[in-house]
Structures are given as C-alpha cells and as structure tokens.
Amino acid sequence: MRTETSSGKLDTIVIGWGKGGKTLAGALARAGEKVAIVEQSAQMYGGTCINIGCVPTKALIHDAEQHVEGIPASQKFDNAVQRRDDLTALLRAKNYSMLNDLDSVLVLTGRASFTGPKSIKVRTEEEELELSAARIIINTGAQPAVPQIPGASIGGRVHDSTTIQHAPLPKSLVVVGGGYVGVEFASVFGQFGSKVTVLDRGKRALSKEDADVASEVQSCLEDAGVTILSKAQVTGISQDSSCATVSFEIGGEPRQISADAVLIALGRTPATRELNLEAAGIRSGERGEIMVDEFLATSAEGVYALGDVTGGAQFTYVSLDDHRVLANHLLGDGTRSTKDRVAVPYTIFCTPPLSRVGLSEDQARKQGLSIKTAVKKVAAVAAMPRPKIVGDPRGIIKFVVNAQDDQILGAALMHVDSQEVINLVALAMRQGMAASQLRDQIFTHPSSTEALNEVLGELR
Ligand SMILES: Cc1cc2nc3c(=O)[nH]c(=O)nc-3n(C[C@H](O)[C@H](O)[C@H](O)COP(=O)(O)OP(=O)(O)OC[C@H]3O[C@@H](n4cnc5c(N)ncnc54)[C@H](O)[C@@H]3O)c2cc1C
Ligand SMILES: NC(=O)c1ccc[n+]([C@@H]2O[C@H](COP(=O)([O-])OP(=O)(O)OC[C@H]3O[C@@H](n4cnc5c(N)ncnc54)[C@H](O)[C@@H]3O)[C@@H](O)[C@H]2O)c1
After folding, report:
1. pLDDT tens digits, residue range 198-221?
2. What residue stretches are annotated with the Pyridine nucleotide-disulphide oxidoreductase dimerisation domain (predicted)?
3. Nearest atom, ligand 1, residue 313 CA
C-alpha cells in the first residue's frame, strides 16, 4: 500500500464527485488548499446528475417530446440515445478538467473507505493508497434502493434508472414505483412509443399532490399511452428469454403483467455501505444516511457530509446549496446554515412538467390555515398564449394563498416552461411578496410567466 501522494500533505479529501463536493473542492483549491477528490468510476466524473441523473434523462425527455415525421420510433430513440451519450461525454470531460487542471487538486479514481478518523484507503484499479487530511468531506450520493421483492434484483430485463438508460427501446415496460423516476421514465418511454404500466402502492397517482393536480398529470401520461395502477403491492418478478412478468395485488386480488422490461424505481438510498464509517466514528441513521448538523458537520470532528448522502431532499440544487453552506462555514463568516432554506421548489419532468413549491391545498388545510385558492386549466388561461404557440396547451395552475395576509403558501404549475416559472414564484415567496404584488408585475409576452397576471387575479 502506498501512503504518500505526489501532492504532499493534503488539507482536504473529498470522497465522491457529486455536485456539492466538486464545487467545494474547486473553491478550496482556489483558496490555496491542497485537495484530493476520490471518485470510484471514470464514468462518473461529475457525479450522478450529469452522467446518469438529471441531464441524460432530461435530454431523452426533450427528444421524446419532438414530433418528427417519417422516421420509425426505434430510429428516433437511437438518435436520442446517441445525442444523450455525446452530451454526457462532453460534460464528463469538462468536469474532469475543471478539477484535474488545477495544480493543487489531486484526482484519484478508486473506491474510498475510512481507515481512521482522518484517514481513508482508496482502491484504484492498480493499487491501494492510504491518504489522510485535516478535513474529509463525504459526497457519495445515493444508489437505487433494492426492494425485498423476489426476483427484483437488477439484471436481464429488470432495470434500475441507470441500466434502463442503456437498454434497447422496450415495446412494453412495467415501472414499479410512481415517484419522480417512475413518472419521468414512464413519460419518456410512453412518448417513444412503449406501452407503459406504472404500479404504485399509493392510494392514487402522485398521492402527495392535490387530487386535481395529480389527475392532470395522470391524464397527460395517459395521452402518452401510460396506464397507472394505484394501491398495487408487487409480490414478485420473474423473467425468461421472451419477457418479464410482474406479479402484484390490488385490494387482495392477485394480478400479473408481462413486458419486455421492468424498471424498479422505489427511491434512492444514501451510499454509505462501503465507507466503513465506524472507523471514523461517523454516526449514520436507519437508511445509512450520514447524520449532520445544520452546518453539515458529522459526529466526527473535521468530517463533513453533503448532498444525497445526508438523507435530505435528493436534488442537485440542494447538494449545490449544501456546498454554499459548507463553503461559508470553511471560508466565510460561518453564518449560513441549511436551516436558512425556504420555499425550495421541485419539478417532475413529465410532459408537460409539474413544478411545485410550498404547501399544497391539502397540506394547508391540514395545518388549519385560512386560505384562498386559484385554480385554472392552462387551456383556459387567455393571457398565456405560449403553450398554444409551442403546441401543448395541457396542464393546470394552482395557487394557495394565506387569506389573512395574502402571502403565497404554495403553487403547483403544470405546463410548458413550468420548471422556469416556479423559480420566480419561489423567489417571490422567499422575499415575502404578497400574491397581489406578484399578480401585478410586468411579464414578457408571449411567455408562460404572464399566466400569473390572470391566475392570481382569481384567488377566492
Ligand atoms: C434518473 C435520475 C434523474 C434525476 N433527475 C433530477 C433532476 O432533474 N433534478 C434534480 O435536481 N435532481 C435529479 N436527480 C437527483 C440528483 O441527481 C441527485 O440528487 C444529485 O445528483 C446528488 O448529488 P450528490 O452531490 O449528492 O452526489 P452524486 O452526484 O450522486 O455523486 C456521488 C458520487 O460519489 C461516487 N461514490 C460513491 N461512493 C464512493 C466511494 N466509496 N468512493 C469514491 N466515490 C464514490 C459516485 O460514483 C458518484 O459519482 C435525479 C436522479 C436520478 C437517479
Ligand atoms: N426531477 C427531479 O428532480 C428528479 C428526478 C428523478 C429523481 N429525483 C430524485 O431521486 C429520488 C428517487 O426517485 P424515485 O422515484 O426512485 O423515488 P421516490 O421516493 O420519489 O418514489 C418512490 C415511489 O415508489 C412508491 N413505492 C414504494 N415502495 C413501493 C412498492 N413496494 N410497490 C409499489 N410502489 C412503491 C412510492 O409510493 C413512491 O411513489 C427522488 O426522491 C428525487 O429526489 C429527482
């Protein structure tokens, strides 16, 4: 085992090339530190988002949405896959040089695990290295959850969100789990022409969303040939050379569906199993998540964790915001904390996308708040020609507002461009802007944002 590195004594080791860790590694190096970043796979420089998560899936969604006459579905899919591969390769190379080109950064490709409070070993393809540093930052992300369902292990016709991206276009697909991953892939493959069935154990599709919003999403998925079966308990999966068969129960009644492929999309578990956290005295929770305080410090002095591995909301922009908290703690005045976050939005990139921030109507009523709401189908919003221009006037817009002080409590926007408009609504919420102030803003035309003028005028 080698115990020295060509870079000499290290100030910081970052384990995992996630969004927060890579950004912080660059910032610390530019501030004069000697930094090592350890990534287990050369195919993952840049982390989940650009290689197997946000970017490749959204590229596929974009291409699935394009209506190209005269080419078969399989050709359209193959073209989309090629474009996605070119894009991810480009971003991976850029990410690699962003750190590797810095003199004070040492990039190591291998799997890291702790050997002591401030030391790790790294198994590369050629050798095992021992490294130590005054500070260690864990940014190992999360992995697809493996359910206790007989036959659900990944292989052959049974896929997770990574392997499905490299499978041939299935004529038929069963998706187990109707969360973010399940809905996005159902929408993609449905639009590429697959016959898709989503099995979810919830009482209805997207059961965390208000019924009117969830029903609009379901209807758009149905337009793409997707069937959603709720209250479904999957009991087993089998496969042979011709198909995979998923057995499940709805209301105690046993049922089966066969398909070319099955996608398991039942959440993502913090990637800590192989880190040997005990060696460093780092406490973790039931799902393996690393326990951190609001400054992202773990239970071990000088060891921090950020991103999905901490068990919080699993979004690239949350990992990036974790980096801001930690950078402020290590290089700034230390006042910033994860508790400062308010109105963090999210988007499920089905077609059209559903974007949400704050409370749903159901959640606000459960909290006993006195509210007014505005709900309008996109096709009925006269002052919003943009969706009609781009040829997809489907969707719904909903606002939940405090009846007492006119503060925006939440919004659900399902329409073209909603992934952009939601950021404006979230900003208005963070700045304490009243609903009537947002309603009376000047917006460009023709845009999707201008719907806010009309919809917020209908609060009752
Ligand atoms: C299919 C899919 C689509 C998604 N779409 C979106 C989206 O549209 N928008 C959004 O905001 N979020 C999306 N997400 C979630 C988002 O990708 C994650 O929340 C985000 O990438 C997490 O970043 P991170 O910083 O926690 O670490 P990651 O980016 O997950 O990076 C962790 C890195 O650590 C490496 N690693 C793990 N263990 C070790 C070890 N022992 N040694 C060395 N290296 C190790 C891994 O190989 C990986 O590269 C999506 C996720 C998936 C799976
Ligand atoms: N657009 C985005 O921002 C985006 C896209 C993809 C993934 N992500 C992130 O990745 C994470 C993982 O996504 P995911 O979709 O895998 O997880 P998820 O937690 O969002 O959804 C899992 C779904 O599976 C269902 N389920 C659980 N056990 C089941 C069972 N045994 N049988 C049937 N259904 C069952 C749940 O009801 C839930 O609807 C998300 O939490 C999200 O933060 C984000």
Report:
1. 999 999 889 999 999 999 999 999
2. 344-454
3. 19
Q: Please tell me if the domain spanning 158-266 has the same topology as the one spanning 346-456.
A: no
One of 3.40.50.720, 3.50.50.60, 3.40.50.11060, 3.30.470.20 is the CATH number of 158-266, namely 3.50.50.60
Residue minimizing CA distance to atom 14 of ligand 2:
267
Answer yes or no: CATH 3.30.390.30 is held by domain 346-456: yes
- Which ligand lies nearest the alpha carbon of 231? 2
Query: What pLDDT score was predicted for residue 1?
Result: 41
Taken as a whole, the chain contains a residue count of 460
- 226 in a labelled binding site: no
Is 166 noted as a catalytic residue in this protein? Answer: no
Amino acid at 429: M
**Model ipTM value:** 0.98
- The rounded Å distance from CA 337 to ligand 2 centre is 27
For the structural domain made of 10-143+269-340, what CATH number should be given? Answer: 3.50.50.60
- Position 3 scores a pLDDT of 42
pLDDT in tens, 154-172: 999 999 999 999 999 999 9
pLDDT tens for each residue of 111-158: 999 999 999 999 999 999 999 999 999 999 999 998 999 999 999 999
Q: Is the pLDDT of residue 2 over 90?
A: no
d(CA 347, CA 411): 12
Burial of 87 (0-12, 13-18, 19+ CB in 10 A): middle
- Please report where in the chains the tokens 């904390």 appear, as a residue: 337
Stretch 361-367: mean pLDDT = 98
* Pocket flag, ligand 1, residue 274 (CB < 6 Å): yes
SS3 of 150-212: the string is CCCCCECCEECCCHHHHCCCCCEEEEECCCHHHHHHHHHHHHCCCEEEEECCCCCCCCCCCHH
Ligand 1 centre and the CA of 290: distance in Å?
15
Only one residue has tokens 């997707």, namely: 226
Can you tell me which residue has the tokens 């095992």? 128
